[in-house]
Amino acid sequence: MNLETKWLEDFVALANTRSFSASARQRHVTQPAFSRRIRALEQAVGVTLVDRSTTPINLTPEGQLFLITARNLVEQLNECLGHLRGVSMAREALDIVAAHSLALSFYPEWISRLQEGLGELPTRLVAMNVGEAIHVLREGNCDLMLAYHDPYATMQLDAEVFPSFSIGQVKMLPVSLPDAKGRPRFSLDSKDTIPYLAYTQGAFLGRSVRMLLKNDPLRLRLRTVYETAMAEGLKGMVLQGVGLAWIPDFCVREELKNGRLVRAGGEKWDVPLEIRLYRCSLVHKPGVEKLWRQMMKLPRDFLQA
């Protein structure tokens, strides 16, 4: 039997409230995610625990019996953990998921600046692709999502359910290794075929570049020689002189400053991007609510990294 502790805690909460919606709020997850977790618990134990035909809901006879075990397990585990830690839990950390490039190159500077205005802010950050991050946010398995804003609405996030803060305006720049004279080894102004380092098909940043090139004959001269979903991976290949790539400006700021990389084309080839911090309004976790209220009071330029 493969049981997750959070399922047991969910079940105890449901037994107390006799309401899926109230229990979901108490457990700081969306109601669909909470319902799936109760279903997963029932599948794990092999019996139906909840009678969903009544309002408020009732436990089945098997559920009433299992509730005793669930409560004992949860209480014993919490008591043991409290004893092992020996001290009260510190302020609860916020779980944040972020696109890889934002997690590596944007987040450290931005969160440091935010803490200047809000004070200490414990966080746990996990980097993943945008599609995975959206799924985690929708499931209520993270508190916040840091991602590029999608002007074409392909992320399909309802603004009422998933409100956001704009926290940065950046650009994707075409960059190349310089030649001996400091000029781009691979230039968009060249008439020759250009070795191109591309984002994979499903990568969000790749979609932005494809929209830029969609109706431009330049795309016919770009010969893809390497693909990856991560901007940092493309940057590493550019530094090896393999080809040119579009990289977010905050990822290559130092390399452009010290001359290790140069722009491969003029400003007309820049791709503007907006960075936003998202939350799910259906999840009412006290720490997230407090952070959101505090951010609304800060001057807009303080939020911008």
TrEMBL record:
- What keywords is this UniProt entry annotated with? DNA-binding, Transcription, Transcription regulation
Query: Pfam families in the record, alphabetically?
Result: HTH_1, LysR_substrate
Q: Where is the HTH lysR-type domain?
A: 1-60
User: What InterPro entries does the annotation carry?
Assistant: LysR_HTH_N, LysR_subst-bd, WH-like_DNA-bd_sf, WH_DNA-bd_sf
Which PANTHER family does its entry note? HTH-TYPE TRANSCRIPTIONAL REGULATOR (PTHR30126), HTH-TYPE TRANSCRIPTIONAL REGULATOR YJIE (PTHR30126:SF2)
Family per UniProt? Belongs to the LysR transcriptional regulatory family.
| Protein name (Swiss-Prot/TrEMBL) | LysR family transcriptional regulator
Organism of derivation: Billgrantia sulfidoxydans
